[in-house]
Write a structure and sequence with these properties.
single chain, 526 residues, alpha/beta, GMP Synthetase, Chain A, domain 3, 18 helices, 36% helix
């Protein structure tokens, strides 16, 4: 490639080079990205107003539905009215309405019928069918585009648009439920990717439809190993599997050797910090990361600042948010706060109302505001994924941060981990929290690693500290999982790859009991 400098000197650059000039696509998209970012900044400055406007529009539209008639939407003028008429609900409470949609009826939760059902699996509800309507599709598609455009504007890096991009996702093959196309959200989104992205998208549709994850990754490696890959997107543990297979197939020492122009990793679904060191070692250098927070129920937030300052709440995209203080969840009449009422550094259950017909719907996640003006959040965990066997209420954010700090202090890195209480240890031991860890790089001093985990937990969670100080709980213990153990476990339960994630925390031992077959070494280890 020839590149003329301002002094008329001609410099010859390789086709794959971080100094490659802006290509045609990135040049054309640059002004669009800037205008999009300006609009998003305006929305953020008016976040409370935008939320009120969305609420009003949702209520007016909802009056035409069966749900709206059952809940007297015609009498709702304010959020206070709404809270009196519409209780917070989970999927089981929503199921009767979903069943009527599956029977072929219209105007149940939203006018008309859903365009798709996003099929997900719940811990207590079994398979869930989350409606996606024509009105809600822009929330899923435009939000992903906005996140990329904002990244381009904020960092100046748009060259990834000129090469190949890969999205490691579930199969786009759809079935039908009551005449409505049904599949994983990531598979549905594959059908809605705009043409200007599809030209650069990998893998091919044929390979993406392969159901067996290990076979699928092998074929993806074959398709992409000689490509000009510039953006990679996926859940960190499955991206790690892709990287490792690429390096095995190519004989290269780093992903950068294969993809010199690879410059941005887009991720979501799990906290990135515990995986960062291992993924960066595979890539061979530190690259930009872009965190997103998509869910079947809606695209909630995305990273909009570098260095990281939390995720920008998607305040003008068809979703009206409510926030319930976590310590009030399960009470008869919890506070249901709107955006102008929240505080920083407090955990809230996230409740959404959207233009797909979800009303006061508890999606099961907990979030914490790191800024309220403008509103930026971090995901702190799952309502049902915590440990409170003794009142400690340990959440995912705490164990993720402890793992990241322990790895940084000791030079260790992990493939995956999960934590569960051991309530009835053998030989009359004091109960403890057991950490099941698969290391990719073992710490030289396991005791120092364990102590670093414990110290971080004690700093973050005062309830945990009180229980340790009072000798109600003993120090945490570590059980090492063999290489590939978590992948084997996920395969055994039919959840290998795609958007599936290992539960970080459970309040019982249902998950970890299934890990017994993959324990290695002398365990547990304090």
């Amino acid at each position: 490639m020839l590149f003329a400098t301002s002094s008329s000197e001609v410099v010859i650059l390789p086709m794959h080079c971080d100094l490659c000039p802006m290509g045609l696509k990135s040049a054309l998209l640059s002004p669009i990205a800037r205008l999009t970012t300006q609009r998003l900044e305006s929305d953020l400055r008016q976040a409370v107003l935008k939320q009120k406007q969305i609420f009003d529009k949702l209520i007016v539209t909802g009056r035409k539905t069966e749900f709206g008639k059952h809940h007297n939407f015609s009498q709702i003028q304010t959020h206070h009215d709404f809270c009196k008429q519409v209780p917070i609900r989970d999927y089981e409470s929503l199921r009767p309405y979903i069943e009527r949609i599956k029977e072929g009826r219209s105007d149940i939760l939203w006018p008309g019928r859903p365009r798709y059902f996003a099929k997900t699996s719940g811990t207590t509800s079994g398979v869930k069918y989350i409606p996606i309507t024509t009105a809600s599709i822009p929330n899923h598609i435009a939000s992903a585009r906005n996140a990329l455009f904002n990244y381009y504007t904020q960092t100046g890096n748009g060259r990834f648009f000129d090469g190949k991009m890969i999205f490691l996702s579930g199969s786009p093959t759809l079935e039908e439920t009551g005449g409505i196309p049904t599949g994983r959200l990531s598979g549905i989104v594959n059908h809605l990717v705009p043409g200007w992205i599809r030209q650069s998208q990998m893998p091919s549709h044929t390979v993406n439809c392969i159901e067996d994850w290990e076979e699928k990754v092998d074929r993806i490696v074959e398709e992409t190993i000689h490509s000009d890959m510039r953006l990679i997107s996926g859940i960190p543990p499955w991206v790690q599997m892709y990287y490792e297979k690429l390096l095995d197939a190519s004989g290269k020492s780093s992903i950068t050797d294969l993809f010199p122009n690879f410059s941005v990793f887009v991720h979501g679904g799990v906290n990135y910090a515990p995986y960062a060191a291992k993924l960066e070692s595979l890539v061979g250098k530190s690259i930009d990361t872009l965190e997103t927070y998509p869910a079947s129920e809606g695209f909630i937030a995305y990273q909009d600042r570098w260095p990281f300052e939390g995720l920008r709440l998607n305040v003008n995209s068809g979703i009206f948010f409510e926030f319930v203080p976590l310590d009030q969840m399960g009470s008869a009449n919890p506070d249901r706060l709107t955006l102008e009422q929240v505080e920083i550094d407090r955990d809230y259950a996230l409740i959404i109302n959207n233009n797909a017909g979800l009303w006061a719907y508890n999606i099961g996640d907990t979030i914490r505001f790191v800024s309220v003006d403008p509103p930026r959040i971090v995901v702190s965990g799952r309502i049902k994924h915590f440990i409170s066997a003794f009142g400690e209420h340990v959440i995912a954010k705490e164990v993720d941060q402890s793992m990241a700090e322990a790895c940084a202090l000791t030079g260790a890195s992990v493939v995956e981990f999960t934590v569960a209480p051991q309530v009835s240890p053998m030989d009359g031991e004091t109960p403890y929290h057991e950490w099941f860890i698969e290391f990719s790089n073992h710490p030289e001093d396991m005791k120092a690693f364990s102590n670093a985990l414990e110290w971080s937990m004690l700093q973050q969670n005062t309830y945990y500290k009180d229980l340790i100080d009072g000798k109600i709980l003993g120090p945490l213990q570590i059980t090492k999982i063999e290489n590939g153990g978590f992948r084997s476990y996920m395969h055994s339960v039919g959840k290998l790859g795609g958007q599936n994630k290992v539960a970080r925390l459970m309040n019982d031992r249902r998950v970890v009991d299934l890990l017994d077959a993959y324990i290695t070494g002398q365990s547990p280890e304090a």
